[in-house]
Records
---
Amino acid sequence: MGIELRNRDFITTQDFSKNELDLMLDVSYDLKKKFALGEPTRYLRDKTLFMIFYDESTRTRNSIEAGMTQLGGHAHFLAPAHMQLAHGEAAKDTAIVLSRFGHGIAIRHCLHGEGNKYLNAIAKHSKTPLLNLQDDVYHPFQVLADTMTIQEKFERNLRGLKVVISWAYAESHLKPLSVPQSQVLMFPRYGMDVTLAYPEGFDLMPDIMNQAKQNAEETGTKLEVSHDMADAFKDADVIIAKNWGGFYVGETEEAIRKEQAKHKDWICDRKKMEMAKKHAIYMHALPADRNREVTDEVIDGKWSVIYDEAENRLHTAKSVMALTMGGRP
Ligand code: CP
């Protein structure tokens, strides 16, 4: 049987085989080329996607919304405060009604302990694909764009590359675990050796780490944990330094912030970047806490590929939507 992505939910890359992920990336490259040429790509003509955002977004909302327009369809932006969700309408009723009106439902819901459960409750009852625009566990659109960006910079053969996924200090908000968790799961499947660096206590979810270790074992790659940021950077090809909340170091936001404040030295700066290989790149999903997570010198410097990474959100979003909401009739 061939690859069939039509009508599939996109909640985590773990639900997809390597061949299926490769197809998503191949289609992303094709859509990127066609976008550059101004060629029409109306694979979702007259189709409707409902986007529900419990949390703020710049890249995700606009890559999905612009992407749907470019694919010939339309995306509705829905804020829970202006839906009957605000009065407690059940996930089942929301899912069934929206899936009768359109061709896909996409949700961002990052509240720790709730987001992923809510997405799965909607997916269970929706007759159309459920697309995860980031929850408390996974951010599959981000990691697909990250993988595409690394492939572009290293000519698609990623085996043996050392990627450092490092915690960094931030103050803007408690950033979800979903970006580093999706990266630690996906990168070993593409042959990369991963070093996960964070101050003691700022662990990722144990179940995710177990799955990531299994992925690394199956692909013969290394997955290491370090509690020394500078040491972790040694000989790296790719540095991804960004904050995550530290949901195991405190019960309340105040307690977590107090713990975070002990680690202001976890900043990605020139000195640390110079520990990495000469050709090393710096990545960040954005939004970045400039001069807390990373210095301006690094994020605006020769290492940084952040805008290519952000642009690839558009091409990968279009690929996943076209494959799951369109495809063979
Ligand atoms: N990287 C990312 O998801 O960005 P937004 O929060 O702006 O959507």
---
Amino acid sequence: MSTPQTPPRALTIAGSDSGGGAGLEADLRTFTACRVHGCVAVTAVTVQNSVGVTAVHEIPADVVAAQIEAVVTDIGVGAAKTGMLASTEIIRVVAAACDRVGIGRTRAVPFVVDPVAASMHGDPLLHDDALEAIRTELFPRATVVTPNLDEVRLLVGLEVPDRTAQYGAAQALHALGPQYVLVKGGHLRADTDRVVDLLYDGTTFTELSGPRFDTPHTHGGGDTLASAITSALARGASVPDAVAFGKRYVELAVQHAYPLGAGVGPVSPFWRIRPDPV
Ligand code: PXL
């Protein structure tokens, strides 16, 4: 038997969803399905099921930073992402830790910033005063940011009812400093049977168009997209190739989403995990 090789590694800096649909659980599942070893810096524990979030326990900021340092200095990662960060203090400490270990757009390790503000039930996952830290501490360090249209409104105050506004939002977000902006179009109801995500690098706009699937079960979809992009970056893909891969991955995950509990079910990794176990 040949000696097993170390696979590509990726880090998620994110909160836990006890229901297993979103958060770091979705991230790790996606990394595994993409054949990447997943590492975690846990930022918060949510008490959550398919119906909603009933409590949040934040992890002390110095423990979040220590997890990042422990992972990157020993295991090493090819890419990192953020999900739920909860507070200004955690965001500041994450930014400083990323600088120390070489995560960020001007550093060795590409950095995907998913500016998670609320769950799809509307439960807050970020203190209101922490939006400013996302803008000033994380966006300038990001290789790619992946806001949905609710997050666009919170971050730059723009409504996006149509494609023209989606282009304007990409420019406004790019001015905050990330290398690439991906303005997700899943919430753009003007597109009834397509989802058009828009990638912008400050010069070139690229529309990524794919099918829209009619399912209520899209819990963890944003986390899954950002994690699939991060996986491809960890494998050495360029940002445009990683984003195209991530979109394909999440389309199939949404197509195979399943019901769970009494509420909203998650997007699925199972289409990719073959053969089925006995
Ligand atoms: O999908 C965004 C998200 C991220 N992180 C955690 C979550 C959610 C949505 O519910 O619970 C922990």
---
Amino acid sequence: MPTGRRHAGGYTLTKPVYFIGFMGAGKTSVSQYLALTLGLASLDADEYLELLEDRVIADIFAEDGEDAFRDLETRYLKEISERSPRLIGCGGGVVKRAQNVRIMKEHGYVVYLGVTADEAAARIPNTDSRPLFKNLDVARKTVAEREPLYEAAADVYVSTTGREVPEIADEVRDRLLESGVLVKES
Ligand code: S3P
């Protein structure tokens, strides 16, 4: 596996950091905030997939179905994991496939950002781009179904309920420093 690169901010990642959790948990926002404040590379796995497939996720679901999307998700997760370590915002359903969890555990460190379905709904202004966020009842059920999967995949859990991105990011940064995944250059 490639070793961590040095960045201007004086911090290095020793392995990839995967953010998991339900839609609206703040995976992309927290990873981008940390990337900016610590001078690290970040990548949103869904954006990467959309770029390389040249299609938005809603269209992939509508045209080819969820299984086809999950196959692509696994392919690109593997690809991203082989690159130099970075902060990776994963799609909310990444834990649905055991193979994805194995890839993340084998290569890196997994941060589970917890959110309730009700708060997630309040954070997502337009759910049209998220084919699996059909309505609040379905979202509540999905969160309950996925919680054990997120917990089993996670190295660390960080609650986001009632918290803003900088506060969540500070806690994640501290956990990464403690675990040795994030190293401050002297
Ligand atoms: C999904 C979450 C989405 C996206 C796809 C499926 C899910 O990502 O991967 O719509 O199954 O929860 P975000 O969690 O980034 O919204």
---
Amino acid sequence: MDRTAHDRLLIVDFGSQVTQLIARRLRELNVYCEIHPYQNVTEDFLRDFAPKAVIFSGGPDSVTREGSPRPPRAVYDLGVPILGICYGQQVMMQDLGGRVEAGEGTAEFGRAYVTPGADRIDLLNGWFLDGTGREQVWMSHGDHVAALAPGFAVYGTSPGAPFAVTADLARRFYAVQFHPEVHHTPNGRTLYENFVRDAGFAGDWTMNAYREEAVQKIRDQVGEAKVICALSGGVDSSVAAALIHEAVGDQLTCVFVDHGLLRLNEAEEVVGMFRDHMNLQVIHAEEQELFLSQLEGVSDPETKRKTIGRLFIDVFQKYADQIEGAAFLAQGTLYPDVIESVSFSGGPSVTIKSHHNVGGLPEKMGLKLVEPLRELFKDEVRALGRELGLPDSFIGRHPFPGPGLAIRCPGEITREKLEILRRADAVFIDQIRRHGLYDEIWQAFAAILPVRTVGVMGDGRTYDFACALRAVTSVDGMTADFYPFSHEFLGETATRIINEVRGINRVTYDVTSKPPGTIEWE
Ligand code: XMP
């Protein structure tokens, strides 16, 4: 995005687990903001970024520790409003001449209630209105402010934080001990709204504005060159493709790799929608035989993923090579993948599953990247998709993993099992839609189990596969809980699957949360 086009807010990240939520709240208020780790925020950076306001995030360190994270002094001389949150509050106090002390009886974790001070402050307009005279907030701090910096006064207190809300009104510096960005501070959004209004933000970060600017930017970047895009039918690649198509029309060619591990009618739906409905050039790479033959006899989940990932790159490259003059590869990278958050845990985390992606492609093929969604969060991508005219049924789709049904077929993959699985999955999803539950559920699918069980149908004995149904609620797929279907729903669904899908005679429902389970069975 052209940074000069919007007022910008800078979030200095001190390593809080919830820094991204600050950005979410601000984007909801149509404010353009960026998160940058404190180490990168130098004086030069500040000059270049020219924020209209600054927010200091929370963080796990203690300002009482020598060498703890700090912003450059110059941030206080910008003459723009600053809001410090939790650790950010303590940084401000310490930097500006106050005092912070370690724990000792005033640590607060979880729900707390703030009561207003004697003087009103615009930052809290809209608070304390429910008649209780207090406002619920979320605290998570060990250290506390022991003495205010000169110029600051107190505008709200909580039992464990006498300085819960503080401000230097002359300089428009605000500092709060709690986290207004989290769900458990129900009126936190109002606080952010008051802050950005005071800072003079126009609220001009709208999807319509974004769309127009993004289109222009793609045109400037791509010129007359050709762009290729691996279209999966997922929200990110679909929206990226639609946006690039709006910018450069037929200079874009999409490749839809059909690995034979898709859901019932999926390939036809995706290709039909983009080719016929949206007039994109789409190559339907029908490579089912290649993938399925290479997967024959493979039962290890990681080998499945690696095989599919490798073949995917080969296949994509083969089709892309046929597009003369392709110089750019489109990717649906989102902002959460771009944010270089401060990590205090150190060291790479353990790989539970190696998610497949097309990350190795650009270097291998000598392509430049077009990533028009780099500044967006997932729900903003959905909003943009709607702007671009993608149907709601597409935008609201549950996520589907790159390796597809391969990881919903524990053990050895066979064509027979895939066919049975496809049909069972379709009945399950149909049930969910019929009962109006699709949008309440984050992801739902069937898995076919590598066992046959005995049943009785009519007067005969059956010896068929069992399947497991999985439906979870989640925000980001990192943690999840099983969806609490009614027993009636489960009974009706089991009956339908057994009646309508030959090859299955037993249906189970997976009630494992994540952790300890994962969402997929492999
Ligand atoms: P798990 O099973 O790890 O899944 O709890 C979390 C989310 O990631 C998806 N998933 C994958 N997506 N390639 C993908 O593109 C993969 O190999 C893969 N494995 C899991 C899963 O569907 C869920 O949405």
